[in-house]
Amino acid sequence: MTSPWAFVALILFGYFEGSILYAVLLPKMMKGIDLTKVSEDGNPGSANAFQYCGIWVGFWTAVGDFAKGFLPVFISYWIWDWDDIGIWYGFIILAPILGHMFSMFHRFNGGMGIACTTGTLIALFVHSLMVVMLVSLYAVSRFIPFKRRYQRTWFCWSIFAVLVIFLESNWMIKWPYIIISAVIIIMATIQKYVLKNARDVNDELGENKALNKIRELKEEHQKKKG
Questions:
Q1: Burial tier of 131 (Cβ tally within 10 Å: 0-12, 13-18, 19+)
Q2: Which residues contact 224 (CB under 8 A, 6 or more apart)?
Q3: b/e map of 86-103 (b: 16 or more CB within 10 Å)?
């Protein structure tokens, strides 16, 4: 029988390597860009790496994010039988994703964890078709004219959670993805209000600048008349 400490070690390893945010490291190393400052939503993720840093930085960022989700899950079923792992399997799946969302190297801040989650699903491909469901949802969402990225996140992960509940029969891999879907939806909701407040502040600053400019023009006009 496998010692529980072996599972704990793999969970800690998963959280540790999940905490390495490639969307922070690679854009800075390769382009000198801080995604948390230049992107609209401040999210250190693969999508922003593609958008703000180009194809190659985005590609290697995505590879890193996929790999850190894939690795601990792949190791677990490569070494042990499913019956030996039991309930620990869910925590092994969650570890790298939570590491990405709440990085120990970045004051427990991080990204949405979408690419990392997909990496864990790829590792489970031989046991589950959930990765096909998620990729299909994102493919379909591309034909829907969402105005904001968080709306696409709501759409994909809400439906994904429902599909997991009704179509995935294995509870060892069902419950962690229900939790992750809920966390991603909550983070997208928080992101919505952060963006809204940021836009409101920018609008207010813009209005103040416009008023100041009008006041300056009036003052100049009065001086000319005088």
A1: middle
A2: none
A3: eebbbbbbbbbbbbbbbb
Check: CB of residue 45 under 8 Å from CB of residue 23.
yes
C-beta neighbour count of 147 within 10 angstroms: 7
Query: Distance (Å, rounded) from C-alpha 30 to C-alpha 33?
Result: 8
CB 64: neighbour CB atoms within 10 A? 21
pTM for this prediction: 0.77
Question: In the structure encoding, which two tokens stand for residue 91, read together?
Answer: 């925590």
Backbone angles phi, psi at 73, to 5 degrees: -70, -40
Find out whether 48 and 61 touch, Cβ atoms under 8 Å: no
Beta-carbon count within 10 A of 174 CB: 17
Reading the block at residue 151, the tokens are 């709306």
Q: pLDDT tens per residue, the chain (226 residues)?
A: 577 888 899 999 999 999 999 999 999 999 999 988 888 778 888 888 998 999 999 999 999 999 999 999 999 878 887 677 788 888 999 999 999 999 999 989 888 888 999 999 888 876 667 888 888 898 888 888 888 778 888 999 999 999 999 988 888 888 899 999 999 998 888 876 665 554 444 444 444 555 455 566 556 656 655 5
All residues at 6 or more sequence positions from 2 whose CB lies less than 8 Å from its CB, including other chains? 80, 84, 85
CA 18 vs CA 42, 135, 146, 158: distances in Å: 19, 21, 29, 24
